Design the sequence.
């Protein structure tokens, strides 16, 4: 057990993963430079340039070749520098990676991991702060996971790599270095498809993932100071959704607040709200609240705090559910 | 001035350069083209009878496709598009699955075990990069296999053509890009795809060799491909082969090509037919007879009739099966949706 930040935990996960000779890592500037966030720092020196591969600046080419490699028996991990740069590869992901299992009726599969650093909060340039994960959760054939701690970042990455299907792996940029935690050495997995209750509570269920876990936990603490007992669920996986855990909690508390940084319309929160109303309507004591990014392009550095859901907004939403 | 393509037989079947092929090999290539043409015409006929959905005929391109696949080894990979049934079949993809796919049955995409052919790419241009990845995996695993991808002239305008060519060049991948330049991308002529004099010359910019070949001359295509295979296996990197050919029929059975092509132009290409010239060559070498022709045609027809029967007699694709291909193991959400769907379908 060591105390690592999320970037270090992910580096450790890659190091463990590369013990499997089928694993290769592809991306821009991941080898000699160690990646723009230094997640793959030192791995090329340790494992060789044919396993940790610096590619041309070519997202569709990276995903497309990784797909071919996966079909031919390798287990590629792709690093795209920022989620906002993945769109040139979206056609490869949607038209091929996500559907070769169905197209070939299980004869060919593309088990691969596509890592996407995402989210605002570091004052980056345009295109570097997006949370457009819903464009992946909507696509049949993809699994989508989101790390929120150093521990689950490592465990989810190793689980994603072992998964027989392609996995979109979201890494919250602003947590890379700001979150530390104990991380076990060697190999372990955090199961895909399982959400976790990270704080027990009785009055309201706060459901969040990725970077928003931090603000959501802060909101839960504030609520506790005014006598409100909030339960906090970290989804960890967006597809397949752990509906069972969510519904069980909401049926008990009768109130749900869904938190994500992504825009509201068509977001993951919309799907969860629909499932709650279909399965737990008569347990609800208040309308479901969504605290999300606005349906906007993420503002630049000077205004991004107006966009990212704040502790204040989450707290206010939870209190509204208690007032009705 | 267009660069001269590599050619062995002219349109009359007369050798214009040395013929390296044994007569038996020529007969094999000819027979494969005859079989492919019978398949192609059968598939188009099935479409007109309403027994098959849209079909993309390859008549006129048999030499390009048969020449591309003829010298591949079993362990080599073929990544082709929707018009490439002749090449796919020669590398082991069964006729019945090619038909089943076009009849609208997902099981047509299930390549038999041991056959290294991906199901046909329906989108234009996205699949070339997959061959690059497969070739790269062979190199990393130190296998001796190579990958071949086939595409049309239209596909070279897609961005992924650039990315695939670029990766192949940078990483010296053991692969061959085969562009069947058939002159037309639906209604868009070749000169509206690129201002380059040839497509083959594009390879130069990516740091590897491009070869122009008469795509209606199966001996020339096979020879050029064999040289490219040798180079790839020897670690000398990729080759781009531009096979000059012509699509005799419409883009698909849903296309009316009289809207954009002159009949006389099509007729001039019919005189360039890839089968005729080999037949004439074989005749000149006493290696062809009307009886043999009728035997190979009958054998091909009965093989393809069997394939039609098998494709048409596949069991119904029931509601549960539409869910089965989504993941290795169905997610709870999909299990729930499948149950819901099955409730309406008994």
Sequence:
């Amino acid at each position: 057990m060591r105390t690592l930040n999320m970037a270090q935990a992910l580096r450790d996960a890659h190091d463990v993963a590369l013990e499997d000779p089928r694993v290769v890592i592809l991306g821009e500037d991941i080898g000699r430079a160690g990646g723009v966030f230094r997640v793959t720092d030192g791995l090329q020196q340790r494992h060789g340039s044919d396993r940790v591969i610096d590619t041309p600046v070519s997202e569709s080419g990276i995903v497309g070749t990784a797909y071919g490699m996966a079909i031919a028996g390798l287990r590629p991990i792709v690093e795209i520098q920022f989620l906002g740069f993945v769109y040139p590869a979206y056609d490869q992901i949607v038209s091929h990676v996500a559907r070769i299992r169905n197209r070939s009726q299980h004869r060919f599969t593309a088990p691969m991991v596509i890592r996407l650093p995402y989210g605002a909060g570091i004052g980056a340039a345009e295109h570097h702060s997006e949370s457009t994960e819903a464009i992946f959760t909507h696509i049949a054939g993809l699994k989508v996971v989101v790390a929120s701690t150093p521990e689950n970042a490592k465990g989810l990455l190793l689980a994603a790599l072992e998964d027989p299907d392609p996995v979109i792996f979201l890494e919250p940029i602003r947590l890379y270095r700001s979150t530390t935690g104990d991380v076990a050495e060697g190999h372990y997995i955090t199961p895909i498809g399982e959400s976790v209750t990270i704080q027990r509570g009785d009055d309201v269920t706060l459901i969040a993932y990725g970077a928003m876990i931090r603000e959501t936990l802060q909101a839960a603490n504030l609520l506790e100071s005014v006598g409100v007992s909030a339960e906090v669920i970290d989804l960890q996986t967006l597809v397949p959704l752990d509906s069972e855990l969510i519904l069980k909690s909401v049926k008990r508390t009768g109130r749900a607040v869904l938190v994500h940084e992504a825009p509201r319309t068509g977001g993951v929160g919309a799907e969860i709200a629909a499932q709650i109303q279909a399965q737990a309507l008569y347990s609800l004591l208040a309308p479901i609240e969504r605290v999300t990014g606005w349906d906007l392009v993420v503002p630049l550095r000077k205004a991004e705090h107006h966009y990212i859901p704040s502790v204040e907004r989450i707290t206010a939403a939870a209190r509204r559910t208690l007032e009705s | 001035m267009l660069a001269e393509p590599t050619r062995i037989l002219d349109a009359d079947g007369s050798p214009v350069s040395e013929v390296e092929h044994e007569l038996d090999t020529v007969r094999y290539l000819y027979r494969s083209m005859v079989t492919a043409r019978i398949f192609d015409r059968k598939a188009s006929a099935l479409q007109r009878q309403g027994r098959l959905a849209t079909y993309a005929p390859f008549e006129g391109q048999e030499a390009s496709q048969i020449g591309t696949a003829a010298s591949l080894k079993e362990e080599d990979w073929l990544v082709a598009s929707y018009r490439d049934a002749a090449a796919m079949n020669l590398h082991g993809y069964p006729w019945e699955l090619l038909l089943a796919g076009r009849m609208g049955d997902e099981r047509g995409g299930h390549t038999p075990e041991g056959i290294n052919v991906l199901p046909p790419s329906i989108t234009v241009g996205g699949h070339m990069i997959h061959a690059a990845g497969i070739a790269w995996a062979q190199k990393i695993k130190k296998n001796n296999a190579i990958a071949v991808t086939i595409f049309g002239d239209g596909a070279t305008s897609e961005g992924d053509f650039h990315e695939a060519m670029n990766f192949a060049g940078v990483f010296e991948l053991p692969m061959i890009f085969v562009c069947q330049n058939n002159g037309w991308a639906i209604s868009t002529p070749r000169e509206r795809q690129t201002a380059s004099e040839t497509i083959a010359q594009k390879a130069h910019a990516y740091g590897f060799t491009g070869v122009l070949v008469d795509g209606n001359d199966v001996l020339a295509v096979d020879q050029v491909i064999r040289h490219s295979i040798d180079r790839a296996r020897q670690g000398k990197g990729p080759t781009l082969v531009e096979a000059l050919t012509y699509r005799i029929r419409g883009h698909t059975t849903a296309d009316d090509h009289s809207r954009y092509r002159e009949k006389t132009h099509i007729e001039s290409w019919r005189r360039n037919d890839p089968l005729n010239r080999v037949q004439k060559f074989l005749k000149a070498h006493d290696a062809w007879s009307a009886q043999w022709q009728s035997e190979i045609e009958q054998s091909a027809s009965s093989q393809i009739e069997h394939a039609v029967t098998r494709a048409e007699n596949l069991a119904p694709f029931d509601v549960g099966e539409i869910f089965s291909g989504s993941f290795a193991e169905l997610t709870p959400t999909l299990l729930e949706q499948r149950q819901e769907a099955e409730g309406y379908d008994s």
